[in-house]
Specification:
The complex is a heterotrimer. Chain B is of the alpha+beta class. Chain B has one domain: Alpha-Beta Plaits (2-Layer Sandwich), CATH 3.30.70. Chain B contains 7 helices and 10 strands. In chain B, the strands form 4 sheets. In chain B, strands 8-1-10-9 form a 4-stranded mixed beta sheet. In chain B, strands 2-3 form a two-stranded antiparallel sheet. Helices cover 71% and strands 1% of the residues of chain C. A two-stranded antiparallel sheet of chain C has the order 1-2. The chains are: A alpha/beta, B alpha+beta, C mainly alpha. Chains in contact: A-B, A-C, B-C. Bound molecules: ligand MGD (2 copies), iron/sulfur cluster (5 copies) and molybdenum atom.
Chain lengths: 733, 258, 412
């Protein structure tokens, strides 16, 4: 057949028709839709056997019992451990642990900084280099110029670091302070030797919180939430006193906005009402016999804390103060809470003491629904480290931070004093710094000052798992395993019943990281001599096993033990009573509540920080999931918002979302404005935990680190940082 | 009715106690982690941020110091509408979302959905989310993906499933153990299980033994937009009048539902 | 050069001039095509749509072009069913505009869906409860009918007309066109209605929700009615525009006048129904759900009560009154104003039913959602306009669309 144009066309048409009626187009259509269901770039999670492993979360000081769901050797989910144990719970951060485990900002191998660039090195190399440097320092009789900043003072890992410093010959083991330090001080000053409080919130019927962020991250957040829910179930009262309608205030039965910094004044005012009306007699007929220094205290509050004066200072109506005091004393088991927000800054000693006087007046110590005075878990019974002469001589050197002496006689560590000490001397008094379990360069107030100090320190070793701000300043990083990859004992003591939990590895380390406990043991062994001798353990795991031997059964079964044995420890001081005023507290007189820094005229506003469960502001930073939950009135693109009362905003001609320049005596920042009726006029607030420069693209550069804007204020009574805010001014841009 | 036909049909639902909810966001993260919800570098544009569970912040509209706020977690309401005609289900042209009469769960089949978004227009709770882009997990992070829930592709709608796969897992476990019934605590959604405040109670609204059965009867309990006839299976509880009133629309001088 | 393709007895501009015109339109078309490809390959993140605005500009454009394309079915209905024979002089153009509108609508839908390769699921996994399923089926069937109505005209091209087969086909098709027109009219009544139903059934969206009869909300009927009223106005508008561009009279006044008069009456009765609907909605439907009318026209920067006035009074009552009165129709200015207002009116109606529905908050703790389209959305929405202009240009040049053209523009 000849192919001409005509039959070519018919052929084409025929073929087209044929194809149309063939299965081909249908098949192609189907295939294309199947293809869209299996796009090669969409991941398909590999399947495997499911298993559940219990462990203890150490992402904050809460130490929650959690369960990890695994598929094969992958961690897919963190959940709360189903158990009646008060510590079984989980929060938004703990839930993020799979994301944090697999985070791109994990440090995957030891690193060394060479000409401002990171070079990968082996663990061995890193340990050898550190040991070499430390040997040199010791040779020069400068062992006391080694310092260590540790996130915590409790548990075996911090204890190993402290032991290392002792054996090496340095007194400069410094922990990151928190409200816990003040709790200890308040109670050891007034109730006896070394005890820590546990507020029995769940069983109380009237909780007065002086700015404590019960639902904003305080203590063990998960346990605090549970306690609050029980309070709600029992229809008991929560009164929140703070200048901002925080999440805690929003859940409270009553919110009493107060001029910030005057909480202690209110407490003493309430004390005056209680004493004036002799309300305490109803509860404690034999008041004098269980307290000491009451008459002196009575005279103090009567003189300086009249209802009128207190009302003027705090901005709270007289009748509200009276009613609050009366309701507090009328309750069966009232409790007064103190420590601002999540409790990451210690705060003013006198303010805390003032609030705690209310607990004393209510006579609620060691009673259900009151405050239990417990001793700290004490289970690390190692033999003393072996000291050679060099070490012995140098550990008696003065502590760099001055803690425990002179006007700082009350404090054990004062990290907040370090930047000033370093900056004020010509060459850094610290030649070598370990930073473990903490990110001080980010979390300390007055960033500029801190940066200057860190830059001055010749050699820094970081043990961080993440490329956080402090790690980026280090010279060597020996990255720790993530908590899901390691054993560690976790001690929780903040505000609720103290417990010791055991964190167990859930997966094998996924990167070339090293347990900080093993790292410090290896460094000690590399140094040899008495230092090596002080570390008789083969590795951290054997050390931990030995330490916990006595509690093995409990640990294997429950992961926890809760120490309640310490009650007897309270009131062990000479009087055996609660001491309103005694010789020690008299040394810290007069009662001063720390005010914000800055001239009122130049800076008419007051900037305060607020804590949010959705933003991790401590050593652990936000996971991408957490940042995703942050409202667009807190962060939009990279802009951070400050909260301001609409009335105040109007004075500055600021509308919702408008940009403004925020200036404090410590720095400047461009912010956006969010109008919030829940904040006192004249006050502005900003969340803590943002403005990271370290970590990954899911966090870096979002917002501003409030520590850049806030300075430190040394509490005259304790030496701790007591700043709760700073004066500020806004300008429209 | 399927296998357990001797039993009454189930109607899974929630009662969320707004007096207890602290707005902490744990439920949101629990949900994202459980259900392989993707995340981006910038999630501050909330209108394209996928949050099957979203915690709203309600304000009472008053000035300082009378201002009050309340947090309200919003999963999919698994609306029953009139006998299963949920707002979103009846509109879907491809039956990519369906009402299961045995469980009361409104399902979403990602591989069936062709992304017309009619269901999103229909849902008054903004509980449905569209995959405007390909989901991307940074290198390594795909390791935590849950194999029980398939990651979604660009161009389809997704929403809260009441963690249906957790129901399946519970059923499988019971089946393997020779039981034909599961207990209340065997099937709990990820958000309810995670909530540190125990604000979310989940269970079978038809089952007298389940807590939700009792809790939903509290006079301070309400549902969102009940007046539209969506017939949701998520109940809220609040002791505050203004919060209960915020749950629905009322004319100025109209009293809120008693 | 292309004279062999140009129908006998009519004059067309030079090929060169025609090419420049087409090239200009193609440039606009290409802009749209780029945007379209971006949407297909990069996904709908190219748009400013979001989880609150799942339906936006395109869906509005879709509803609007379908309403405007309603001229085809209603003119067909009037000619073939009612027997208004004069309308044969405009029916071809109405059909062409219909084809353009409906193919555009389908194209927009294909860009709009998140998974275009799965679009056929709507037929394969059809949900009979869904108004969108109804729309998809009727729309596709009606497009087929429209194409069948268009084919005979296409075959009248002098070149194609030379093929005996096509000539006969065309002739026979003309014979049975009434059947197709009837089918088309029936399908159209339905899908215009279903489109109204799309919004009206949303009982979770009080702004759009309407009660009704059986499974159909009132919007079902209102959409059909308004399309029947305003579609022909659009046909007239495009006809007049074509006359302006070609500088020729193409359709006799009595034809246009007849169509306009019927449109006027349709619009008048529609607007009465619409007023009744609005009143019933405001007085009964909304209060039951806890809303009052003003809730939907306040507290936002754009949607004020003006839009309701614009839709009902300015673009409804006024053009209806003009078109109904013969004086109004005779006054050229008034007449064109009325035609344009009617077209704008139906577009406003479709706009509010899509965009205001999405914008208005339903939960008490949400605010209004405001939206503006991205350039990709604008470009893809303009794409059909360019495509339509090109289609019309070719059709006008090569097909005997206007039976009266020769008579009105004799060439010596
Ligand atoms: N609504 C709804 N319908 C469904 C499904 C659904 O999920 N929901 N699932 C579908 C699926 S996947 C399936 S497989 C089918 C299952 O549907 P069916 O095959 O109907 O399954 P069953 O209801 O489990 O059991 C059938 C009957 O077999 C009886 N039986 C048990 N053991 C034996 C035996 O040894 N010998 C005999 N002769 N009888 C026995 C049981 O008592 C029961 O009455 O249902 C389908 N239909
Ligand atoms: N206790 C108990 N356990 C049983 C049985 C029993 O009788 N009792 N029966 C067993 C039997 S016979 C069966 S078949 C299984 C059924 O078990 P499954 O198959 O696990 O259960 P289904 O609920 O039918 O469907 C699972 C999910 O698939 C989604 N889905 C539906 N269509 C599609 C689709 O096209 N693509 C995708 N990706 N998802 C889709 C549904 O929305 C649902 O969420 O259960 C078994 N397990
Ligand atoms: S409260 Fe602390 S310990 Fe508990 S889960 Fe959260 S981060 Fe972990
Ligand atoms: S986890 Fe619980 S308390 Fe936290 S936001 Fe969700 S419902 Fe509220
Ligand atoms: S809440 Fe929305 S998505 Fe969920 S069932 Fe109801 S209408 Fe559907
Ligand atoms: S977007 Fe998907 S689920 Fe929603 S209506 Fe369309 S096809 Fe159905
Ligand atoms: S029920 Fe499951 S899917 Fe739904 S919001 Fe809760 S966790 Fe997410
Ligand atoms: Mo089956």
């Amino acid at each position: 057949m000849k192919i001409d144009r005509r039959n070519f066309l018919s052929l084409g048409a025929g073929a087209t028709a044929g194809l149309a009626f063939s299965p081909l187009p249908w098949k192609l259509m189907d295939d294309s839709s199947i293809w869209t269901q299996n796009w090669p770039w969409a991941p398909v999670p590999t399947d495997g056997e499911a298993s559940y492993v219990d462990t203890v979360c150490s992402l904050c000081s809460g130490g929650c019992g959690i369960t990890i769901r695994k598929i094969g050797d992958r961690v897919v989910k963190a959940e709360k451990k189903d158990s009646d144990n008060a510590n079984s719970g989980i929060c938004i951060l703990g839930l993020s642990s799979p994301q944090l485990l697999y985070s791109p900002s994990r440090i995957k191998t030891p690193l060394k900084k060479v000409e401002d660039k990171w070079v990968k090195i082996s663990v061995k190399q890193a340990v050898a280099e550190i040991a070499e440097k430390l040997k040199g320092l010791r040779k020069d009789k400068l062992s006391h110029t080694l310092a260590c900043i540790s996130g915590s003072s409790a548990g075996t890992v911090p204890a190993l670091f402290e032991r290392f410093l002792t054996a090496y010959g340095s007194p400069n083991f410094i922990t990151v302070p928190s409200v816990k330090d003040i709790y200890k001080l308040v109670f050891s000053l007034t109730c006896g030797a070394s005890c820590i409080p546990a507020f029995d919130i769940a069983n109380s019927d009237f909780v007065v919180s002086f700015g404590t962020g019960l639902l904003d991250g305080w203590g063990n957040p998960a346990a605090a939430f549970k306690a609050h829910s029980i309070l709600k179930d029992n229809k008991k009262q929560l009164i929140q006193i703070e200048p901002r309608l925080s999440n805690t205030a929003a859940k409270a039965d009553k919110w009493l906005p107060i001029i910030p910094g005057t909480e202690g004044v209110l407490a003493l005012g309430m004390a005056n009402v209680i004493i004036g009306k002799q309300l305490y007699f109803n509860k404690n007929v034999l008041f004098d016999s269980v307290t000491e220094g009451f008459e002196e205290f009575k005279a103090l509050v009567e003189k300086d804390y009249s209802l009128e004066a207190v009302s003027n200072i705090t901005g709270i109506k007289q009748e509200d103060i009276t009613a609050l005091a009366e309701d507090f004393m009328k309750a069966q088991s009232p409790v007064a809470l103190f420590g601002r927000g999540e409790g990451s800054t210690p705060g003013s000693l006198h303010e805390m003491m003032a609030v705690n006087f209310l607990n004393a007046l209510a006579g609620n110590f060691n009673k259900t629904g009151g405050v239990y005075l417990l001793s700290e878990p004490d289970y690390i019974n190692w033999t003393h480290p072996v000291l050679d002469d060099a070490a012995y001589y140098n550990i008696n050197a003065k502590r760099l931070d001055g803690a425990g002496e002179g006007k700082y006689f009350l404090a054990k560590h004062l990290l907040n004093r370090l930047p000033e000490v370093v900056n004020s001397s010509k060459t850094s008094p610290i030649n070598f710094l370990f930073v473990t379990d903490s990110n001080p360069f980010y979390t300390m107030a007055d960033t500029k000052l801190v940066e200057e100090a860190f830059k001055k320190i010749p050699f820094i070793v970081s043990f961080s798992s993440y490329m956080d701000e402090t790690a980026s300043m280090a010279d060597i990083i020996l990255p720790n395993h993530f908590f899901l990859e390691r054993y560690q004992d976790i001690v929780t003591t903040c505000g609720l019943k103290p417990a010791v939990g055991l964190s167990k590895p859930v997966v094998n380390p996924i990167f070339n990281t090293i347990h900080s406990g093993d790292a410090i043991i290896s460094i000690a062994k590399a140094l040899g001599g008495t230092i090596a001798e002080s570390f008789p353990w083969d590795n951290y795991e054997t050390c931990l096993q030995e330490t916990l031997e006595a509690k093995k059964d409990v640990m294997d079964k429950e992961l926890f033990w809760i120490d309640e044995s310490g009650v007897s420890n309270a009131f062990a001081d000479s009087s055996g009573k609660f001491e309103f005023i005694n010789d020690k507290t008299r040394q810290t007189k007069p009662y001063i509540f720390v005010d914000a820094q800055g001239e009122k005229k130049k800076y008419p506003l007051t900037l305060i920080r607020f804590d949010s469960m959705r933003i991790a502001s401590g050593y652990t930073a936000n996971s991408p999931f957490m940042t995703k939950t942050v409202a667009d009135t807190v962060i939009k693109e990279n802009d951070i918002f400050i909260e301001i009362n609409p009335k105040t905003a109007a004075e500055y001609n600021l509308a919702e979302r408008s940009k403004a320049l925020l200036t404090t005596p410590k720095g400047k920042a461009q912010v956006r404005v969010h109008l919030y009726e829940g904040i006192m006029p004249g006050i502005i607030s900003m969340p803590s935990g943002l403005g990271h420069t370290g970590y990954d693209s899911y966090l870096t550069g979002k917002g501003i680190n409030i520590n850049e804007l806030i300075g430190q204020i040394e509490d005259p009574a304790s030496g701790f940082d007591a700043a709760w805010g700073i004066r500020a001014v806004l300008a429209r841009v | 009715m399927s296998k357990g036909s001797k039993h009454k049909v189930k109607k899974f639902g929630m009662v969320i106690d707004l007096d207890k909810c602290t707005g902490c966001g744990a439920c949101m993260v629990a949900c994202m982690s459980e259900n392989n919800v993707p995340f981006k570098e910038n999630e501050s544009k909330k209108l394209d941020s996928i949050t099957w569970m979203r915690v709203y912040k309600l304000e009472n509209g008053k000035s300082f110091p009378e201002a009050d706020i309340c947090f309200l977690p919003r999963p999919c309401m698994h609306c029953e509408g009139d006998r299963g005609h949920a707002p979103c289900v009846s509109v879907c042209p491809a039956i990519a979302t369906d009402y299961d009469h045995n469980t009361g769960i409104v399902s979403q089949i990602y591989t069936r959905c062709f992304g017309c978004r009619y269901c999103m227009a229909a849902c008054p709770y903004h509980a449905r989310y569209f995959n405007w882009r390909d989901p991307v997990w940074p290198e390594g992070m795909e390791k935590f993906l849950n194999p029980n829930v398939s990651p979604r592709m660009r161009g389809v709608v997704e929403k809260c499933s009441f963690c249906h796969h957790r129901y399946q897992l519970a059923l499988d476990k019971a089946y393997a153990e020779g039981r034909d019934k599961i207990e209340e605590d065997e099937y709990q959604t990820a958000c309810a299980h995670a909530c540190p405040a125990n604000a979310i109670t989940f269970g079978d609204l038809n089952n007298k033994k389940h807590s939700v059965y009792r809790l939903k009867k509290n006079p301070n309990t309400f549902r969102l937009l009940e007046r539209l006839g969506t017939n949701p299976k998520v109940y809220y509880h609040s002791s505050r009048e203004w919060v209960r009133r915020a749950g629905d629309n009322y004319l100025k001088h109209e009293a809120a539902k008693a | 050069m292309d004279s062999a393709l140009i129908p006998e007895g009519v004059k067309r501009c030079s090929l060169g001039r025609f090419s420049v015109w087409i090239l200009a339109l193609t440039a606009i078309l290409l802009w749209g095509v780029i945007a379209m490809l971006l949407c297909w390959f990069k996904g709908l993140n190219q748009t400013n749509m979001n989880d609150a605005y799942g339906f936006a500009l395109w869906i509005w454009a879709d509803l609007a072009v379908i309403a405007l394309g309603g001229g085809a079915f209603f003119t067909g209905f009037l000619k073939y069913i009612v027997g208004k024979d004069e309308l044969k002089n405009i029916i071809n153009y109405a059909v062409i505009i219909g084809v353009i509108c409906y193919t555009s609508a389908l194209l927009l839908l294909a860009i709009d869906v998140g998974q275009p390769l799965r679009s056929w699921f709507i037929f394969w996994h059809a949900n009979v409860h869904s108004m969108l399923t109804e729309v998809a089926f009727c729309l596709s069937c009606y497009l087929v009918v429209l194409i069948i109505e268009f084919l005979p005209l296409l075959f009248e091209n002098p070149k194609l007309d030379k093929k005996p087969f096509l000539r006969h086909l065309s002739h026979n098709m003309h014979e049975i066109m009434a059947v197709f027109a009837a089918t088309g009219a029936f399908l159209s009544f339905f899908h215009q209605g279903s489109l109204g139903g799309v919004a009206g059934v949303l009982f979770g969206r009080p702004f759009a929700f309407r009660e009704g009869v059986f499974i159909w909300p009132w919007t079902f009927f209102l959409f059909t009615w308004s399309a029947a009223a305003c579609g022909p106005c659009f046909t007239i508008l495009i006809t007049r525009l074509t006359e302006k561009v070609t500088n020729k009279k193409l359709v006799k006044d009595n034809v246009v006048d007849l169509l306009a008069k019927i449109s006027g009456w349709m619009l008048g009765t529609y607007i009465i129904a619409k007023i009744f609907d609005t009143w019933y909605w405001a007085a009964y439907t909304l209060p039951k759900q806890g809303f009052s009318l003003i809730d939907f026209y306040s507290n936002n920067p754009f949607y004020g009560i003006w839009i309701l006035v614009a839709e009902i009074v300015i673009c409804g009552i006024i053009p209806a009154a003009i078109l109904i009165s013969s004086g109004g129709r005779k006054n050229k200015r008034l007449f064109m104003t009325a035609i344009i207002l009617a077209v704008i009116g139906v577009c406003i109606n479709r706009w509010v039913m899509v965009l205001q529905t999405m914008a208005a908050p339903v939960m008490t703790f949400e605010g209004w959602f405001m939206y503006y389209p991205s350039w990709q959305e604008v470009a893809t929405t303009i794409l059909p306009v360019a495509y339509g202009a090109i289609f019309i240009s070719f059709a006008y040049r090569y097909l005997p669309i206007f039976p009266q053209e020769r008579e009105l523009n004799p060439i010596d």
